[in-house]
Write a structure and sequence with these properties.
The protein is built from ten helices and twelve strands. The strands form two sheets. Strands 2-1-3-5-6-4 form a six-stranded mixed beta sheet, with helices on both faces. Strand 5 and strand 6 form a beta hairpin. The mean pLDDT is 97. It binds nicotinamide-adenine-dinucleotide.
Length: 288
Amino acid sequence: MTERIDGHTLLIGLMAYPIRHSMSPTMHNNAFAKLGLNYAYLAFEIDNKKLPSAIESIRTLDMRGSNVSMPNKQKVLPLLDKLDPAAEMCGAVNTIVNDDGILTGYTTDGIGFMKSLDDEGINIRGHKMTLAGAGGAGTAIAVQAALDGVSEMSIFNLHDAEWENAKHNVDLINERTSCHATLHELEDRDDFKKEIQDSYIYTDATGVGMKPLEDKTLVDDPSWLRKDLIVFDTVYAPRTTKLMKVAQEAGVEHVFNGLGMMLEQGAAAFKLWTGEDMPVDYIRHILF
Ligand code: NAD
């Protein structure tokens, strides 16, 4: 590290609270070192209260940009100068780029989702997706998939705090993209089964399957899953979720966890800051 840092090093931040557990500093600093790029990435514990001055410091310190995570992903919007269309539709930002004092907000989770499928040689454009969950990850996935050309999307959510958000996502997708989106109640099991069976890909973005719901899945009957359905769980800890086990039991060929999405959302931010491709395989090897 000391060999890399000099008077020209540009700083990139991560502003969230809590954040000390994040893998992003290891991811980005190793990628900078590998490619010989003169940047340093540091995590800062920033809550909503500190956020305005922290964002201003990006300009003051001439930082190249920052990641933001909870609880700042939505609160940061009015503090920025411009928004990428996907970030604007999601109402959330996870990446900021500073171009000569102009701060632009992006969301890269959805890009990471689509890219991780591309990496596996899977193209869901022109096909139908059933998606469970309309929180942060579900929204980013829905918006990017619709912008990228997924033709039909059935979004399922519980009647909980995210229901209104799910409704909003469906309206926005139908207004602004060529994708036809519909909203469904997760409580309606027959409808859920029918939509999954009619889809090219089923994506779970609810977090059911990770702690404290490690032994749970929304789809516990293997007979719901065709062998040629693509099954994607955004969870990456554990590596093999209950949903993935059910899919494997059903003989589904393409079953994915969220690891590729996590790496590719980072790679998308890396590209926005540096213009370079992150050495994803090298970083995967270092992190996992
Ligand atoms: P969130 O809290 O914003 O949204 C959670 C969603 O799941 C909501 O739609 C909620 O209604 C639904 N939900 C919650 N509990 C449920 C239950 N018991 N049954 C059915 N639905 C339920 O969370 P988030 O930030 O969107 O994260 C969701 C998951 O996605 C987490 O597991 C997270 O780790 C994962 N994630 C992965 C990546 C990645 O890069 N792989 C990125 C972001 C999030």
